[in-house]
Amino acid sequence: MSVAQETPTGPVLQKPTTVRQNGRWSGYRHLLMARMLELKREPEVVFWVFVFPLLLALGLGIAFRNKPEESIPVAIVAGRGSGEAQSLLARAPRPEPFKVQVLNAGEARKGFRLGKFDLVIEPNGNGGVEYWYDPARPESVLAKTQVNDALQAAGGRNDVIATNAVASSEPGSRYIDFLIPGLLGMNLMNSGMWGIGFALVDMRQRKLLKRFVGTPMRRGDFLLALASSRLILMIIEVGLLLAFGVIFFHMRVLGSIAAIAFIAGLGSLTFGGVGLLTASRAQKIESVSGLINLVMMPMWIFSGVFFSYERFPAVIQPLIKALPLTALNDALRASILEGTPLTHQWLRLMILVVWGGISFLLALRWFRWT
Amino acid sequence: MAVAIQCRDLRKTYDGKVEAVRGLNLEIHAGECFGLLGPNGAGKTTTIEILEGLLPPTSGHVSILGHTWQQNEREMREWLGISLQETRLSEKLTVRETIELFASFYREPRSSGEVLEQLQLTEKADSWVGKLSGGQRQRLAVATALVSNPKILFLDEPTTGLDPQSRRQLWDIIRAFQGDGGTVLLTTHYMDEAERLCDRLAIVDHGQVIAEGSPADLIERLGGHHVVEFALSSNGGASAPGILNETWRTLPSVESVRDEDGLVALSVKEPHLAIPALLGAVQKQGRALEHLTTRQASLEDVFVRLTGRHLREE
């Protein structure tokens, strides 16, 4: 705030002298400036808004990176026929990367239970085998199929259809490509809800809101300044996370920057509106914290941040798609990963507008300044 | 004299149950320093916040410089400077930034440099608010009110919790504002503050004005001029305190008697008549004095006389 100071000459003036005239937007400008200064001076904000999402992306990106094909651990129960089974596996035409151990039945089962083996093969002594597998464990099901194919092929089975498999792990279809737009959406929700909802209740609890309405401050300017500060932060948040994805994970951004900025800005304002509604009455930061978490929880789970919501039952899919974070994540993914133009996303954008708009209108009705 | 603040039959009921203000009337003239004095929970803060237009009254009429909050709120805000009882200003803004922020809301504010200097905050101008002492914070709160160049200054318990030096500094600032023609309305539960600072005051209890006038006038009317306090030695089974108090009341020049656990306080107009009579009466009872002092009556005595309670009692 570097408004030129006109220092009064001489000692303390007896008569207060008016030295300046403020224009229409002076209050808005100062409110925005004060908000940005406060955020800048709050190290926690910098961490949670900017650094934390990057760490999350880095950690998850590494954990779920595309690994080279791993060997499949299987156990063969020692006994009659175990040697044959082992040599059959080794003789398979396309040598599958099996890691085979021969153990007695008890140890083999125990290892299987503990997840050390994906499959237990128990020869029945008559040239046949019995598979122990867990239908609920995808890797166990996979191991059963692969072992069976290998054994049958080694035993002389002929495939009737010629097949050819092509491996695909291009940028655009990897987990990190799915993850980064989801993190963007989640981060916009988090910072919108906390940045508006928490900040307002904090000011109300400190009686600062009441002090402000004791001045001629325009209340609309106050809310506008808060929203503006969110948009400024949004540009930095989105820019950082996308740049991070591009540089570290060679992510490809297909949509235009303007389209992505538009979606992110709309999402930011939507959650700002929801945050405002959450904060409209609460007197204590403890109660608003609970409320914010309550509102955000379903969206963390259902809105496809870390994994696709297609996994949930079909019945609740329409509900999931009506959530604002789902609409935001879908819109961001379509724009970033596929370059879908905004005109093809009007339904998602409408969902955001409706959530944000209704929240904002309700908040204006209910909002307590004191 | 022009009326700066007026309210008639002001009432405020919270949740339809708690009656914080019950029919309160005030008339504060332009250029005076008016105090609302009363214990915690008397309704002072509710009253001042209604006058400031921050709280709607349940019923009653308020006008500030002839305008009402319903008709002319935005304009009226330009005329007032407000310091609430407890506002925690943003800790991570500097003193100057905070004053500039408040100045930006007004059409024609004073320069922040001038206000900083007046409130002796120039040295701290670039410190964060979070680093200020209690007295400095309170001065900053008053600075955010004065930067608007107000006609009326509202101060809700401006010196509560401050050390004596900080209190005096604030008193000087308030007097200076008044000296420039400003009107001040303040609430306090400090007697000395009310006596020294206020031209007139209203004693408020249970949401009503129970006495009003200049400090000297109130003391004169209600406190007697002097207070004689004494205690009797506890020998002998003597008469019950009730009967004794009746004896004291009949002594010449005694206006009222208060007995607090054996410490008796007499409100006295003329001590040279009352004290010899008191000594005679004590002797007649066959008792001895354990303690005797006389002092000027204070607002505290007025308050106790009116309510039977001390101001600072909860």
What distinguishing features does this structure have?
heterodimer, A: mainly alpha, abc type-2 transporter like fold, 2 domains, 4 strands, B: 314 residues, alpha/beta, Alpha-Beta Plaits, 6-stranded mixed sheet, 11 helices, 13 strands, 35% helix, 29% strand
Average pLDDT, all residues of chain A:
86
Number of discrete helical segments of chain B: 11
- What proportion of the residues of chain A is helical, as a percent range? 55-70%
The overall strand count of chain B is 13
CATH topology (fold) name of the largest domain in chain B: Rossmann fold
Structural class of chain A: mainly alpha
The interface involving the most residues is between: A-B, 39 and 43 residues
Number of domains of chain B: 2
What is the string of SSEs of chain A from the N terminus onward? HHEHEHEEHHHHHHHHH
Structural class of chain B: alpha/beta
Alpha carbon gap, first and last residue of chain B: 38 Å
**Name given to the CATH architecture of the largest domain in chain B:** 3-Layer(aba) Sandwich
Approximately how much beta-strand content do the residues of chain A carry? 5-15%
In order across it, which strands form the biggest sheet of chain A?
Answer: 2-1-3-4
Q: What is the string of helix and strand elements of chain B?
A: EEEHEHEHHHEHEHEEHEHEEHEH
Quick one: how many beta strands of chain A? 4
What is the count of helical runs of chain A? Answer: 13
**β content of chain B, as a range?**
25-35%
Total number of distinct structural domains of chain A: 2
* CATH uppermost class of the largest domain in chain B: Alpha Beta
Give start-end ranges of low-pLDDT stretches of chain A: 1-14
